[in-house]
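Exercise 3.2. Students should predict the tertiary structure of the chain below and write it as structure tokens, then compare their answer with the key that follows.

Predict this chain's 3D structure.
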Amino acid sequence: MSLPYDFFLSLFLESLILDASLLSNGLDEFEMGYVANEEMEVRREIIRTIISGNTTSLQPNSGQPVMIRGHNICIGWHDERGSDFRAWEWHGHVMTHDEEKGYLLEYIFGDYFERIPERHR
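Answer key:
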């Protein structure tokens, strides 16, 4: 079975938008803060993996965390019959250090809606 042209076009457009919005946002770590920057980098890596189609390394829906940029992140997805999108969701923690409080875990989460090829409804 070959995939439709629209599927490849949507992958190209998603990666183009991803690169434009996440790679060249013009903000550095000091303007965003460490946790926000790490959350953005984790999001970028997860979405790139999803777009590539090689999602086994993410261990989705396993309940097991995967290491992304040195952070433990749990990833899952779900879709509904009749929908053209798969909803990916993730959550985890970023370790930070505060002079007064020591090491702290900051909770992060994110989501991404992957367009999937038309299928039988």
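Discussion points: The chain has a mean pLDDT of 81. The chain has one domain: 5-115.
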